[in-house]
Structure formats: structure tokens, C-alpha cells
Amino acid sequence: MTRFIHKPLSILAGVWVTFAAILFWLALLISDLIVFPYRFIACAILFTVGLVACIIFVLVGRRWIAALFAVVGMLAVWQAARPWIDRHYVLANREPETVDVERHFVVGYDNIATIRELVRDAHIGGIFLTRRNVEGRTLTEVAAEIDGLQSIRREAGLPGLIVAADQEGGPVSHLSPPLPIPPALSSIAGLPLDKRFEAAEQLGVVQGSALREIGITMDLAPVCDLMPQSPPGIFDRHTRIAARSISDDPTIAAVIASGFSKGLLAMGVTPTAKHFPGLGRVTADTHLFSASLNTAEEDLLKTDWVPFRAVLDIPGAAVMLSHVSLDNVEFGVPASRSKRVITGILREQWGFRGVAISDDLTMGAAQHAGLCRAVEGAFNAGIDLLLVSWDADKIYPALRCGLDALNAGRLDRAMLKQSAQRLDQLKGR
């Protein structure tokens, strides 16, 4: 009789362990304990099956196995509950100095009620709009939502929000529709030499005017990565730099990127050169995997960095730091939290005085080492704006990471002060 009881139990345990193993394996790719966006379903399944199995194994005297099921089930509950716990922690934090940290966050959202409470109490410095915020809506409705959030800030006597978007042109035009789809900047590369800058600038003016009309203040464009010479990796499902870059010629990319940037600035929209130190030589998809760049600085200065320098020489332009590690500068440390890259190369060597923004901190390459490590490292490396755009459930955990680091004295106060001055200049413009 015992054999007949233990056999189905073994099958149940095997199925459960296999399911948990698949989730944890996927977590290495998506960089979340329970895979986004199915985290809550997965948590519920893990907890329910774990609870049932725990009870059964206790009844048959296998308590150590029951304890294992109980521990993993509780981990699933914790993963589902953490954003809620962190939300209450963040909202209860009203100390004046917390603004020094919270004003650096630019966040995406899918729930307008959530973003209103963050905007109202100055827990963030900006918002990020993408397709989920505009799909099925008119330009008037989108503009009214942005203006409503800005009105909350004005009524509270707070600085206006930075409002960012990914409107590169071509395949990455996340506000289109309702905005018209702008042509890819690569479409200008074939024009005669003396026509490229003017055409790019005009495209920037047209696009900047459309963005500004609905309230966008920062465009996360142009893409300054050079067009790759080799095909993308088989797991590159999101980056797709070949479809987004301007040219494989550094000079052509520099002329078009700088012209486009000047056009945006003329319309009051901040351009953002991305994704420094460049993804043109990187085959791994940083949305999922860690990635590195092993090229010497001297070679990058002559090639990949030419478009970046052209844009960053323009007063008012910003730069986005990718999660690629520049191994010859700081081995294994993503550029988004590398002080040697941000402060050493961009600030000290190049003399860049503009705003630096991280790529999305919910990407795999940023989170594999832990969200708090990514947040704390970005602050101390000299990042001015921390982007938490895709996974809205990570907003409160990311904010708490910053506040905990501040309270524990792990943030460089001098770096925060310099960063605050750059943000003041950006908002002044």
C-alpha cells in the first residue's frame, strides 16, 4: 500500500520540481525570480502545488521534503508581495533628503492611478511613455494625460516632469500611432554628402514638433551604434541594432545623428545618444543576457564612438548608457554602473556636461547581479536618470533600493549633488 502512495507522490514531486526548474532557468534569461509578465500566475501555481505537496509529505512522514516545498512556496509568495511591501515603504518615506534620490527616477507605467501618487508626492523625476500608454488613443487624449500629470506637479509647487519616449524612427517608433511613423534615420544615409545633415535636422524638427505638441520633453534617440558587420545572435529578440542603426560608416552616422539631434533641440526636445559604449559589435541581447565589449579604446575612438562624440558635443544633448561591460576599462561591470566609463571617459576625458540616463534597469543584463546593485552602482558611477520602463512592478523595489542605499550611507553625496545640478539645468532648458 505504501508503494502505491509513494509512486504518485514521486510523480507529483517530479512534475513540481521540473516546473520550478524551468521557471528558475527562464529567470536566468529574463532576470526575475518569477518570469515577467507571468509572475503572478507562476507564483500562484508554485504556492498552491507546493502547499498541497507539503501537506501530503507531512502526512506520510517525509517532513524534510515537506519543508523544501514550504520554503519554495514562501519564496513565491514573497516575490509576488514584494512590490506591494516596497510601495508602502516608499510612500511612507517623506524625509526631505529622499527627494535627492527619487528625483533621478524615470519610470514607465500601465496604471495611471499608480503614477499619479508617485507624481503627486515627488517620488519620481519623470515618466516614460511607450506603446501601451498610447495604443487605441488619440493625440488629444495622450496630451491631456501628460498635461494632467504636469498640472499635479505645478499645483504642488514641484518641478515639472521629464517626459521621455522611444521615438527613434523606423521600427522603433513606440508612439506611432497616434503619431505618424517617422522614417528611419538610415533612410537619409544614401543622400548626397551635402544633403545629409540638413535632411536629418529637418527630420528632427518635424519629429520634435510632434513630440513637443503632446508633452514629450526627451526623445531616447538617435541610435548612435554602428550598423553591425555580423548577423545578430540567435537569441537577439529585442535589440535588433541592425534595423535601428543609421550606418556602418562612422562619419555618415555622426553627421545624421548630430543633425537629427539639433533638430530635436530646436523644438525643445532633448536628444539622447544611445547606447554607449555601443552595441554594434555586441551579439548578445542585453534585454536577456549579460554582454561585453572587448575592443580597445583607441579603436573605438576612431570608429564606434565617432557618432557619440558628434552628438555629445552639442550643448543640451544627453547620453544613454547601455548594460554592456567595457572590459578593457572595467571588466565585467555594465557601463550603466561603471564609474570609469561614465565619470572617467565621458565626464573627465570628453568633458561631457550633459545628462546621462541608464538603459532600462529591468533588463536582464542589469538585473542579473541584483536590482539594488544596479541602482546603487548607477548612482555612484554618475548616472543622472535611472530608467525603469518596461516592468512597472519594479518601480517601488527600485525606489526602495535607492532609499536604502541613501539611508545606509552607501551613496556618494558629492556625486548626487553634481547630478542634481545637471538635472536642474536640463529642466531649466
Automatic annotation (TrEMBL):
Catalytic activity annotation: Hydrolysis of terminal non-reducing N-acetyl-D-hexosamine residues in N-acetyl-beta-D-hexosaminides
GO-annotated biological processes: carbohydrate metabolic process; peptidoglycan turnover
GO MF: beta-N-acetylhexosaminidase activity
Transmembrane regions: 9-30, 36-59, 64-81
Source species of the chain: Beijerinckia indica subsp. indica (strain ATCC 9039 / DSM 1715 / NCIMB 8712)
EC nos: 3.2.1.52
Annotated family: Belongs to the glycosyl hydrolase 3 family.
Entry-linked Pfam families: Glyco_hydro_3
Keywords: Glycosidase, Hydrolase, Membrane, Transmembrane, Transmembrane helix
Residue stretches making up the Glycoside hydrolase family 3 N-terminal domain: 113-424
InterPro entries: GH (IPR017853), Glyco_hydro_3_N (IPR001764), Glyco_hydro_3_N_sf (IPR036962), NagZ_Beta-hexosaminidase (IPR050226)
Domain of life per record: Bacteria
Protein name per UniProt: beta-N-acetylhexosaminidase
